Amino acid sequence: MSLAAYCVICCRRIRTSAPPPQSTASWRDINPFSTADVEDHECAVWLLLRQSQSGDRTARLQAVQEMSQTHHWHDYQYRIIAQACDLRTLIGLARSKESDLRFFLPPPPLPSLKEDTCIEEELRQLLASLPQTELDECIQYFTSLALNESSQSLAAQKGGLWCFGGNGLPYAESFGEVPSATVEMFCLEALVKHSEIPTHCDEIEANGGLQLLQRLYQLHKDCPKIQRNIMRIIGNMALNEHLHSTIVRSGWVSILAEAMKSPRIMEASHAARTLANLDRETTREKYQDGVYVLHPQYRTTWLARDCPALRIISVEYDTSLSDWRTRCPMERKSIAFRSNELLRKLRAAGVGDRPVIWVSHSMGGLLVKKMLLEASKKPEMSTVINNTRGIIFYSVPHHGSHLAEYSVNIRYLLFPSLEVKELSKDSPALKTLQNDFLEFAKDRNFQVLNFVETLPTYIGSMIKLHVVPVESADLGIGDLIPVDVDHLNICKPKKKDAFLYQRTLQFICETLAKDLED
Ligand SMILES: *[C@@H]1O[C@H](CO)[C@@H](O)[C@H](O)[C@H]1NC(C)=O
Ligand SMILES: *[C@@H]1O[C@H](CO)[C@@H](O)[C@H](O)[C@H]1NC(C)=O
User: Fold this and answer.
1) CA 42, 44, 48: angle at the middle one, nearest 5?
2) For ligand 1, is residue 145 a contact (CB within 6 Å)?
3) Which ligand 2 atom lies nearest to the CA of residue 386?
4) 49, 102, 232, 381: which one has the fewest Cβ atoms less than 10 Å from its Cβ?
5) Can you list the pairs that 55-61 forms with residues at least 24 positions away whose Cβ atoms lie under 8 Å?
6) Where are the chain's structural domains?
7) Does 386 sit in the ligand 2 pocket, CB within 6 Å?
């Protein structure tokens, strides 16, 4: 079939405003010379559209890739694709780096708010509509907190939204002044928890949650913290494939495509996670709550797949420090509990299918050790062990910290969700973990690199403490490198040429090079 002849059909069809061709049967009887007055672009639009609905996956992928690389069309031509493409194609376009944003129609108008209700009230009603039975303690806590707050303090808090952004030190500096979080935040925290349960996702959808959350998302463009929680909910809902078409129809893909281009890394990561969960065409992995792919955030094509490509996954096991007051008191979990949960989520994201290098900070390093030990006991997780090549530890308290001796508030500030007594200097759990890990690691060929802080960490203007002393960060395997930074900055090199960054990069490159040699 020649391209010219094929084009004719497409263009003819537009002119007679007939529906797009369903089969190729009729193209033969059309005179190919009538292409003379036809714009090539227009042909390309319909050709690609048709190819994007092909039964052949490779053809579909190629069509999406070509669409995404097209930048010279007229607005209306992008709109043709936007209106006529299927769900799979739209998601593919949103996951293609080059895609023009004109592929994404503005979300459909949102239903207007009911008379006499404000958005907080609608959010509260959505939360109240969800099943409140058979929830774990933590979801119950969040839900009751949100419902209590809204009835008690709605009037008092009408003054507006208190948006606490960012994590870490800015909040620590105003330690003692606890922000008055709003009803919206409480409700969202509760909804995030509910959205981890598939049946609750169905309820959220059935009760108009996709639209309500979208309205809230648009209202809070200046509040990344609120937007992140909303995106966590949508990302969790996207784990359920039967909800994909409603998520797409409610206009979320346009919002996600735009968020992907955000210079704010967390905003882009949340969008990338949600889109990856929606993309069942090229993605097998699922990204559960708290697991993000930082790179590559876009679809890599079948051309790139043969090249050794790095995937960088980040794990959020504590929410930011600014959350600490609203966090569930029952959720101060042991390292053992958290490591099992995390191992399961990482496996779902495909970790262990390829060589892995773990990069961990502080308590995260203890989790990595515990995860590897747990994985070594489970045959279905053995691939995680077999594929582990290296581990980097930034200020990990292998032998405990003095932290346990400090006040509860300070401990929560640094380790918001952990039983801190596990981290004390003579904690039996920590000793066992360290001994078991050394025993386990001695027969393996893991490359290990340890960094440790030498500067104290300031908390407010009054308190300074050396969170992890040099001797505590000594794993007993691999180099131990002291660096003149504090506990929070040790995992945040200031510039690309910083020693920390360069040394980390070198370790990763050397470890991967070794892998290629073997
Ligand atoms: C919500 O209010 C009820 C009744 O006043 C109370 O028993 C419950 O502890 C409150 N929940 C939270 C999380 O404060
Ligand atoms: C991992 O390595 C062990 C020992 O070499 C082997 O018995 C096991 O089958 C491997 N697991 C996988 C999933 O390849």
Assistant:
1) 125
2) yes
3) 1
4) 102
5) 57/281, 58/302, 60/88, 60/89, 60/92, 60/281, 61/92, 61/281, 61/282, 61/301, 61/302
6) 3-103, 119-283, 333-517
7) yes
Ligand 1 binding pocket includes 152 (Cβ within 6 Å): no
d(Cα 285, Cα 288) in Å, to the nearest integer? 10
CA of 383 to the centre of ligand 2 (A): 7
Is there an atom of ligand 1 within 6 Å of 30 CB?
A: no
Q: Given this model, what pLDDT does residue 124 score?
A: 87
More confident residue, 419 or 270: 270
Q: Which of 111-120, 333-342, 504-513 has the highest mean pLDDT?
A: 504-513
Instruction: Provide mean pLDDT across the span 339-354.
Output: 93
Selected residue with higher pLDDT from 429 and 105: 105
Task: Compute the distance between CA of residue 416 and CA of residue 433 in angstroms, rounded to an integer.
Answer: 21
Checking if the pLDDT of 161 tops 50, the result is no
Distance CA 430, CA 367 (A): 11
pLDDT for the residue 169: 30
Alpha-carbon Rg for the chain, nearest whole angstrom, is 26
Nearest to 297 by CA among 272, 322, 262, 331: 272
Which amino acid residue places its CA nearest to atom 9 of ligand 1? 144
Mean residue pLDDT of the chain comes to 80
Shortest CA distance to 264 belongs to which of 292, 228, 233?
Answer: 228
pLDDT, residue 334, reads 74
* Widest distance between CA atoms in the chain: 86
Beta strand 312-315 with 291-295 is: antiparallel
Residues present in the chain in total: 518
The pLDDT value recorded for residue 94 is 97
> 333-517 is classed in which CATH architecture?
3-Layer(aba) Sandwich (3.40)
State which CATH number among 3.40.50.12710, 1.25.10.10, 3.90.25.10, 1.20.120.330 fits the domain covering 119-283.
Answer: 1.25.10.10
Lowest mean pLDDT among 120-129, 455-464, 466-475: 455-464
Amino acid (1-letter code) at residue 510: E
Place of tokens 């809204």: 150
Q: Contact at 8 Å (CB) between 272 and 299?
A: no
Q: Which residue has the higher pLDDT, 242 or 174?
A: 242
What average pLDDT does this structure show over 329-345?
80
